[in-house]
Amino acid sequence: MRFARLGAPGAEIPVVVDGARHLDLRPLTAELDGAFLAADGVARARAAVAAGGLPELPEATTLRVGAPIARPSAVYCVGMNYAAHAAESGSLPPEHLVLFMKAPNTVIGPDDEVEIPRGSTKTDWEVELGIVIGRRASYLDSPADARAHIAGFVLANDLSERDWQLAVSGGQWSKGKSGPGFCPTGPWLVTGDEVDADDVRLRSWVNGEPRQDSRTADLIFGIDRIVHELSQFLVLEPGDLILTGTPEGVALSGRFPYLAAGDVVELEIDGLGRQRQHYVEAAR
């Protein structure tokens, strides 16, 4: 199944995307959030679609596309999770999973305008596969238990301000990861039966020029291992978002300029949809 949220920020309507139809989920839930997922929401939505119990949202194609999940309680991020990206960043592939966090309020719609933060000179793009947690996960016994705790997958842009992340970070990356709008997400939350998230192509473009082109099969730490390992150190709650890392082809490599006002970034993961963001100067 594909889920989306349509409408103005803070007033999004939850829908099921069924081919060309957008089915209104409000007979089941007011929001696509952790509470809905924890209450077996995916299965209930599937049953409602099969029974013809959800009305079409006729104005769907005229509405803004929001992030397909409401603000999560946490956004966890895995760093250096593609060997080639680690190399272009000047690092060896990690022996242990690298974890940092983004502020939950960075999550915005996939096509929303993004501001270059005030004072930023090194804003960078990162196409990533995102995992959305569907069931509370704590001390999972093995990686084989992970999929039962995953609601689905999303496309995300893990935007970074590299100077703040690395040069003036004080040792923690999150300072350069939590600028306003630094996590465009969506357009859809897609359940695992509709996408082979372990091996999908992910790509990015800046102003129409190719930047990243890889497959999730190249992840150093795979989906199941990420969820299992994180559950040993923290509690994953329904609705939480995990970003799994980005492949090579970012501005940090030195091969491309950093983002500036007027730039357009597009990102795509097969089966998970496409994003397009226009970048502007921060309001003064």
Describe the structure.
The protein is an alpha+beta fold. Helices cover 13% and strands 30% of the residues. The chain is built from five helices and 19 strands. The strands form five sheets. Strands 1, 2, 3, 4 and 14 form a five-stranded antiparallel beta sheet that branches. The protein starts with a strand and ends with a strand.
The Cα radius of gyration reads 18 Å
Strand content: 25-35%
Mean pLDDT level = 95
Distance between the termini: 42 Å
Query: What general outline do the C-alpha atoms trace?
Result: globular
* Biggest sheet architecture: 5 strands, antiparallel
Q: How many beta-strand segments?
A: 19
Q: What is the succession of H and E elements?
A: EEEHHEEHEEEEEEEHEEEEHEEE
The tally of helices reads 5
Helix content: 10-25%
Keywords:
five-stranded mixed beta sheet, single chain, five-stranded antiparallel beta sheet, 5 helices, 13% helix, globular, 284 residues, alpha+beta
